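Response to reviewer comment R2.3. The reviewers asked that we include at least one raw input/output pair. We reproduce the pair for D-amino acid dehydrogenase small subunit here without editing.
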Amino acid sequence: MEVIIVGAGVIGVATAHFLQQQGCQVRIVDRRPAPGMECSYANGGFYSAGLSAPWSAPGAIRMAVVSQFDKSAAFKWRPDFTWRQITWMMQSLKECRPDRFSINRARLTRMAKYALECLRHIESALPIDYQRSVNGVLQIYREPVPQAMIDGHLRYLETMGIAANFLSRAQVFTLEPALARSTPHLFAGLHVHDDLSGDCQVFTAKLAEAVAARGGVFDWNTTVKQIHVDQSGAARAKIRSIVSQDREFKADAYVFAAGADTPMLLKGLADIPVYPIKGYSVTAPIATEERAPRHSLFDFATKTGMARLGDRMRISGIAEVAGYGTTPDAARSDQLLAAFEGAFPGAIGLQGATSWAGLRPATPDGVPLVSRTACENLYVNTGHGGSGWSMSCGSGKLMADIVTGRPTDIDATDYALLSPLRR
Ligand SMILES: Cc1cc2nc3c(=O)[nH]c(=O)nc-3n(C[C@H](O)[C@H](O)[C@H](O)COP(=O)(O)OP(=O)(O)OC[C@H]3O[C@@H](n4cnc5c(N)ncnc54)[C@H](O)[C@@H]3O)c2cc1C
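Raw output as returned:
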């Protein structure tokens, strides 16, 4: 079977890898000159099942309202009064109900846990160095949090089969001695043992190399502009070809993994409820090792990710519902740096720091769409929001199983576009 994948971010490349494993010939088309140049480029680096959760959660509505009055809010909604943004926000609000949140969180965690298995499977066959840290990830709490919240989180992780434990302040300092000096009043921490971190773009590029070495074809600087569809009588619509600025491509099946652009590309063919959520990161070399964190950690108070990527730190966060612009805002980068410096002063070399912003392709419920569509040979793999790296290999494997008609390892209806069971 010949399959064209539109989008060479981490999701498209992981999909290509697993399709190839199942005997398909793959062609990957991307408007950029190399793999992982958009949202997969400089994300937070966390490959985490234990810390992944939908953002449409109880309490998010209050945050959206409060954010109107706070320039530096970690979550910021900038109303642009477009129909796309309004409908997405309305759908997201519904998903903030506690009952919806628990269903969505379980779906997201199941995918991320499965993705860890699929990543290990890739790693056992391919020696990919992507500056991986494997000593788990840590969430730190600077302020006291209710015991019921901690117990609830631990119970949830246990139900999902994720090994984690709660750490007292002293135990956090044993794992992270640098924090003892800078944040002596820290409250506690949560250590998720099997989660890891690594550079998503490096992984994507190396996996793409492996796909190419096995005969996969990559068309760079190629923007898909049109989709030609056969619609004859009562039969289901079927893609005949896709067209770029200068070429026409044909295949048996088409997987769209075009991130935040997927809804526009498929307009009129499939209704994809994905909207961009802008996020920021700063990457800087570690200057003083004994002042730097040993683990990748998430600061619950400032909602900042601090991931070790070899001898660099990746500091990430902020969620802006603000349209499709990707220009980094210097004030936001400074905010991330201030959060990191507050926890690990003097650990990184500020002169070597680089700032970046990207658009997370987010669904209202936070659960990705890994699915067939009403169009016979059209599939989508998108909507991974703030956890796309963490879910990448699981989504790639599930997509490959769906396209080739194999039994799936996890329940595909949870990620389906058309399934009434998804609701
Ligand atoms: C600040 C930030 C921090 C994050 N931190 C984490 C984290 O710690 N852990 C985690 O799991 N996730 C994280 N994420 C989320 C994660 O990065 C995304 O979910 C993931 O990268 C999405 O991958 P993708 O392949 O779907 O999209 P992309 O990487 O955006 O890939 C889509 C591709 O489609 C191509 N494309 C689009 N339109 C066309 C077209 N018309 N023709 C041809 N090609 C096209 C683009 O060029 C692009 O290469 C973070 C995101 C941000 C912004």
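Residues 98-125 form the longest helix (28 residues). The first strand starts at residue 2 and ends at 6. Further pairs are available on request from the corresponding author.
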